[in-house]
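User: Could you go from structure to sequence for me? I need the amino acid at each position, not a summary. Structure tokens:
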């Protein structure tokens, strides 16, 4: 429908421009080729394929929920304000989701909705002879298929040919076929992609990050590792000299972060014009509105799992992404609990303890403060979201080196990434290859009311110390689910109220609504 509306708008604009000329000319006969060659028309078709990413990542029940809430880092437990979520967050935490779960449904519908627009834009740019734009859009299309590959595995591949043919029931492809499609598309268009920085747009370096990601996870997707291929892709990014680590870790996430030297590909948000970046509402207690002079009240909310928080070195500056301790208004006055009538005279004090996913006190759990919450924000936030940043490229290389027996080289890279985060105790930034090969510091096991009641530990996790580093660097950045799967933790370990619930949980159920609409789809095993 949007495609039709844009086409109608473009035709209308051309018709209005002709109304001042009374000579007889067939202005009502605008050919498809003329539209395809019109730059304004192409811009109107291209813009939505990027803006749709804002909804994919942070729309209601979006990608953030799907990647983080089922992990060992973040949880949205029940709170005493009586707000009911229908059990959706508990299902993510407990790994009990099914084909009706909201978050996987949202990813599927939003991604294929974006692909419909994207394929239409590719088709029309082909007709207009805009080859470089076609290559850019084909590369962007692989990003959406990377999301589908990672989360669902076996999905239909829909291209501009399906749009042209009006095909509404495409065939389902295997995970290997989706992997091969992404790899082939990116290798085909790579020479045509821009090599300069193009903020918020797909270029060669963003495309190489997609390739590096699928190679990094190839053993999960295909059963065969491709560590050296991942190294090759990120080496090109590193050797380009276009990116560098921000001296201050937190500058990647400030409100005006578009000038960050570290961002390879970012999704652009603006509180007035683009996207619904709402994580401050999702995580903060309602009383914290006074801390930031927010125009609306937060919901309750999401927090860090204490078992993960406890693994940080106290001198690691990355620990400060978590909002903790006594809370004050913007004027310095204490703010108070408000959910439990018995606590309304007690100052709100975020504490690193939780009851369980089924019940917590309103002050329990450190809140997510990774992105700067601008004082005076009326609605959503304006911070851009770095989907791929330079630290990610470096850590991909480090992991692949570690897994191929080059632990000392891996440790040098991890040390490089850590150095900015230990300003008060710089010697702590150094790690060794032997340390990275150790188990995890995470005290896995079921947890209740501040105590691990069935300890499992993390010493048995190969390269667990490196997994810890990924957690510190990329907490709340859509990483954790994928990392836990790759390190064999996701379906094997317990945390908070979660216990393992089947190896099939490494991919989600295909939404029942999609199955009902397309008889060619078959449900993923285990669902």
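Assistant: Here is the amino acid at each position, in order:
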């Amino acid at each position: 429908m949007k495609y039709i509306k844009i086409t109608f708008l473009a035709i209308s604009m051309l018709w209005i421009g002709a109304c001042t000329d009374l000579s007889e000319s067939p202005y009502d006969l605008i050919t498809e080729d003329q539209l395809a060659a019109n730059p304004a028309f192409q811009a109107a078709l291209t813009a939505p394929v990027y803006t749709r990413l804002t909804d994919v990542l942070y729309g209601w029940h979006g990608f953030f929920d799907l990647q983080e809430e089922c992990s060992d880092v973040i949880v949205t437990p029940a709170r005493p304000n009586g707000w009911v979520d229908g059990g959706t967050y508990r299902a993510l935490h407990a790994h009990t989701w099914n084909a009706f779960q909201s978050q996987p449904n949202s990813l599927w519908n939003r991604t294929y909705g974006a692909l419909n627009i994207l394929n239409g834009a590719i088709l029309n740019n082909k007709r207009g002879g805009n080859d470089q734009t076609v290559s850019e859009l084909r590369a962007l299309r692989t990003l959406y298929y990377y999301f589908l590959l990672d989360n669902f595995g076996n999905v239909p591949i829909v291209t501009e040919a399906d749009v042209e043919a009006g095909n509404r029931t495409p065939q389902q492809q295997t995970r290997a076929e989706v992997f091969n499609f992404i790899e082939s598309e990116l290798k085909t268009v790579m020479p045509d992609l821009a090599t300069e920085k193009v903020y918020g747009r797909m270029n060669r370096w963003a495309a190489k990050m997609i390739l590096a990601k699928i190679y990094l996870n190839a053993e999960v997707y295909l059963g065969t590792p491709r560590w050296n291929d991942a190294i090759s892709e990120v080496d090109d990014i590193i050797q380009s000299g276009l990116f560098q680590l921000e001296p201050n870790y937190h500058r990647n996430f400030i409100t005006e972060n578009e000038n960050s030297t570290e961002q390879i590909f970012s999704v652009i948000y603006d509180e007035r014009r683009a996207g619904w970046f709402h994580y401050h509402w999702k995580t903060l207690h309602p009383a914290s509105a006074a801390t930031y002079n927010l125009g609306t009240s937060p919901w309750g909310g999401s927090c860090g799992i204490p078992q993960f928080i406890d693994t940080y070195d106290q001198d690691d500056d990355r620990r400060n992404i978590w909002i903790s301790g006594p809370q004050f208004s913007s004027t310095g006055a204490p703010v108070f609990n408000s959910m439990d009538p018995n606590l309304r005279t007690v100052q709100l004090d975020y504490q690193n303890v939780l009851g369980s996913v089924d019940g917590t006190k309103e002050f329990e759990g450190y809140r997510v403060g990774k992105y700067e919450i601008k004082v005076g924000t009326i609605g959503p936030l304006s911070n851009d979201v770095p989907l791929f940043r330079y630290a990610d490229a470096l850590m991909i290389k480090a992991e692949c080196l570690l897994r191929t027996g080059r632990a000392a080289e891996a440790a040098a890279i991890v040390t490089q990434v850590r150095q900015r985060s230990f300003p008060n105790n710089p010697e702590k930034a150094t790690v060794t290859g032997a340390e990275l090969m150790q188990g995890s510091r995470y005290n896995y096991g079921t947890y209740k009311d501040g105590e691990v009641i069935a300890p499992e530990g993390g010493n048995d996790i190969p390269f667990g110390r490196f997994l810890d580093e990924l957690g510190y660097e990329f907490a709340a950045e859509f990483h954790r689910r994928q990392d836990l799967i790759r390190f064999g933790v996701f379906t094997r370990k317990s945390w908070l109220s979660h216990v393992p619930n089947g190896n099939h949980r490494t991919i989600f159920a295909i939404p029942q609504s999609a199955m009902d609409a397309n008889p060619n789809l078959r449900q993923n095993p285990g669902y």
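One structural detail worth keeping in mind: Confidence is low (pLDDT under 50) at residues 1-30.
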